Every structure is written in structure tokens, then in C-alpha cells.
Amino acid sequence: YSVFRLALHPGLCLSCVLSSHVTECFNSPYGTKYFPEYAEKIPGECTQKLSEVAKECSIYLIGGSIPEEDAGKLYNTCAVFGPDGTLLVKHRKVSRGRSTREVETGNPVIHLCHCSLPFTSQGCQLLVYPGAFNMTTGPAHWELLQRGRAVDNQVYVATASPARDDKASYVAWGHSTVVNPWGEVLAKAGTEETILYSDIDLEKLAEIRQQIPILRQKRSDLYAVEMKKP
Ligand SMILES: *[C@@H]1O[C@H](CO)[C@@H](O)[C@H](O)[C@H]1NC(C)=O
């Protein structure tokens, strides 16, 4: 399998976070027929490795996702580790669900999710999606969705896709991307395995929120989004 890694490193305006992330079901070929064979427990061999890397590099590590086996059931699960290697949070994908996990990194606040909500009101500054779009949805929606989420939530959006393998049964689109809250693409990978670096500039984020004060103009007296515990 190919593992795509995306690293968000501390830029001028971001002092404390180094996140590295691997993609959706990265320990397995992508496809439901493979998942039973590649599924692991969490904690298990694969997440142990991720924990070691987080500790070794002293980074927050968003471990893409792996097929997880628990009590005979399979889940598509993302595990996040802190700089001391601790498992901070485990997020199981909910199909078409609106579920999210917040990771306290101090700054920025990171949300992991598979479906975006108006996160800004929850203090979110960076949305991270490990994903594997295919050759139809990729060219049509991959970048569009990221830019859309970035602008409508006024957040940074980072995605990690598997590199493209034309011989795989599931051909991923590739093109891991980082988008700023203005909708501009800051960094974008090609189809091959690579490392992307991008600065997450929280001052710019604050500026944009100032310029277009979506939050302050929101009519919470007319509508609200409710988050339920999974
Ligand atoms: C990609 O996924 C979409 C949505 O599930 C599906 O309609 C399409 O046929 C798939 N395309 C390829 C090339 O597998």
C-alpha cells in the first residue's frame, strides 16, 4: 500500500503544533473485501507504531484511519496521539453521519470529522479529513468540497489522500490539499507519494473572520445545529 503523509508544521504564526497525518484505511488496500483481513485492535500493532512516531517526533499525530475490529464488528477508525505518544481520541466514522471529535492541542483546535457542520461556533480552526476519493468523485468534488468547507466555516482545511495506484482495485484520486479560510489552495500534492508542508496562520484566520463576520451575523434565534453524542 502507499502511505501518504501530510505534515502541518509550526509556521511563523503557529508556535505549538506539529501535526502529521496519514490517510484513510492506510494500513490496508482500500475496499471492504480487504478490511476483515487488515483490521486491527486499537490499541494494536499499527496504532502502537503511530504512538511511537508521535512521541519520537514530539508531534500531534492524526493517524488517518485504519479498519478497526472490536467485538466482532468493523469500524473505520481514526486515532490521534499527543506528543508524548498518548492516545488522545479515537473517532469511528459514522456513515453520512455528523460526528466529530475535538482535539485539544492548545492552538489551533482541530476537529476530525467526515461531515462538516458549522464548526466555527465550536471554536474550530482546522478541519482535517483523511479521505480516499475515487477517479470520478475526485476530479468533481475533492478540491471543491475543501474550498467550500473552508469558506463556509472560516477554517483551514487539510486533507490526506492515498497516492494513486492505477493497478489497485480502488484507484484513489490523490492530491492531498491544504486550503485556507479564504478558500485559497495553499499546498496540493500530485498523485504520487510525497510530503506536503503548509503553515496554518491563525492571525490570517482571525483577520478573515473580522473581514466577513459570519459568526457575529449568525441568527441563532432562527436556527441552531445540534450535536448529539454518538
Ligand atoms: C466513485 O464513487 C462514486 C460514488 O460512490 C461512484 O458513483 C463512481 O462510480 C465511482 N467511480 C469509480 C471510477 O470507481
UniProtKB/TrEMBL annotation:
<dbReference type="Pfam" id="PF00795">
    <property type="entry name" value="CN_hydrolase"/>
</dbReference>
<dbReference type="GO" id="GO:0006528">
    <property type="term" value="P:asparagine metabolic process"/>
</dbReference>
<dbReference type="GO" id="GO:0005813">
    <property type="term" value="C:centrosome"/>
</dbReference>
<dbReference type="GO" id="GO:0050152">
    <property type="term" value="F:omega-amidase activity"/>
</dbReference>
<dbReference type="InterPro" id="IPR003010">
    <property type="entry name" value="C-N_Hydrolase"/>
</dbReference>
<keyword id="KW-0732">Signal</keyword>
<feature type="signal peptide">
    <location>
        <begin position="1"/>
        <end position="19"/>
    </location>
</feature>
<dbReference type="InterPro" id="IPR036526">
    <property type="entry name" value="C-N_Hydrolase_sf"/>
</dbReference>
<dbReference type="GO" id="GO:0006541">
    <property type="term" value="P:glutamine metabolic process"/>
</dbReference>
<dbReference type="GO" id="GO:0005739">
    <property type="term" value="C:mitochondrion"/>
</dbReference>
<feature type="domain" description="CN hydrolase">
    <location>
        <begin position="1"/>
        <end position="202"/>
    </location>
</feature>
<dbReference type="GO" id="GO:0006107">
    <property type="term" value="P:oxaloacetate metabolic process"/>
</dbReference>
<protein>
    <recommendedName>
        <fullName>Omega-amidase NIT2</fullName>
        <ecNumber>3.5.1.3</ecNumber>
    </recommendedName>
</protein>
<dbReference type="GO" id="GO:0005829">
    <property type="term" value="C:cytosol"/>
</dbReference>
